[in-house]
Amino acid sequence: MSRLLRAWRARVDRASIPELRGPGYRSRGRLSQADVARLTGVSEGWYRALETGAHRDFSDAFLLRVAAALHLNETETLTLFLGISGRRPPTDPPPTHTTLDPALLALLRHQAPHPAYLTDAAWNVVAANAPMAEWFPWVKGPRPNLMRWGLTSREAREQVLDWEESCARVYLAMLRVASCQDQGNTELQELLREVLAADAVCRRIWAEGYEVAEHHDGRRFRLRLPCHQGAEVLVTTQMFLPLQSPGLRFVIVTPLTP
C-alpha cells in the first residue's frame, strides 16, 4: 500500500491544485507529504503514518479526503480503503432505477425459456421476461413485489408447495437480514410492517426471531402453476448482482428434473 500511495502522490501536479497556490508555497513539482496533509486537514506526521504503513485508526472521512487530494478514481479509492482498513468505502444509497440498462433488459429476454426477473433492494419487480409473466402473471400487475406476493397472497400459498417452510420462512429470513442491513430504506421497512400486519403466520414465524438468510440463490421450490396444468414443477433460483446496476438483483428460475 505504501508504494501505491507514493506513486499516486507522485503523479499529481501541484499546479493543478488551487489550494496550493499563493505566496509562500511553491507552485511547481509534485505533491509532498506536507501538501497532502494540508489538503486533508491533518498533521504531516499523521499523513506520513498512512503512507509508511503505520497502524492507526484512520477514519472513512480522512481516507475519502486522501482519495480526493490524490485524485483517485473509484477503483483506486476502493483499493485504498481495502488496503488500509480492510473495508469498502462508504457508498451513497443505491440509485432509483427509472431507466434500466438496455443491455440488461436484453440479457433478461435472452434467458427464455427460463423465467427471469429484476428486483430492487425492496424486492419490487422492476422488469421480467415473457416466461416469468407466463408463469407468474402477478408480475404484470401494479406494484409487483416478490415479498408481498410470496408472503401475503393466497395465490402463493396455493402455488408454492410446502409454503411455510420453503417460502415464508426463507423470505422472512431474507427480510430480517435486509431490514438490519438497510435500516434507512423506508420502503423496505414499510414492506416488512405491511407483511407482518397482514398475516398471522408471518407474525408467528417472525416472532421466533432466529432464522436469517441473505438471499435465496440455489434454493429449491416445488411449484404447481396454472400454466403447467397443475403439474408439479421443481425449480431452483440463481441470483446475480449486475455491477453496472447497483441495488438490482437478476434472478433466473430454472426447472430441475425431480
TrEMBL record:
SMART domains listed in its UniProt record: HTH_XRE (SM00530)
Domain HTH cro/C1-type positions: 31-78
PROSITE patterns membership: HTH_CROC1 (PS50943)
SUPFAM superfamilies the UniProt entry points to: lambda repressor-like DNA-binding domains
Any one GO MF annotation of this record: DNA binding
InterPro entries linked: Cro/C1-type_HTH, Lambda_DNA-bd_dom_sf, MLTR_LBD
Signal peptide range: none
Classification via PANTHER family: BLL4672 PROTEIN, BLL4672 PROTEIN-RELATED
Protein name: Transcriptional regulator with XRE-family HTH domain
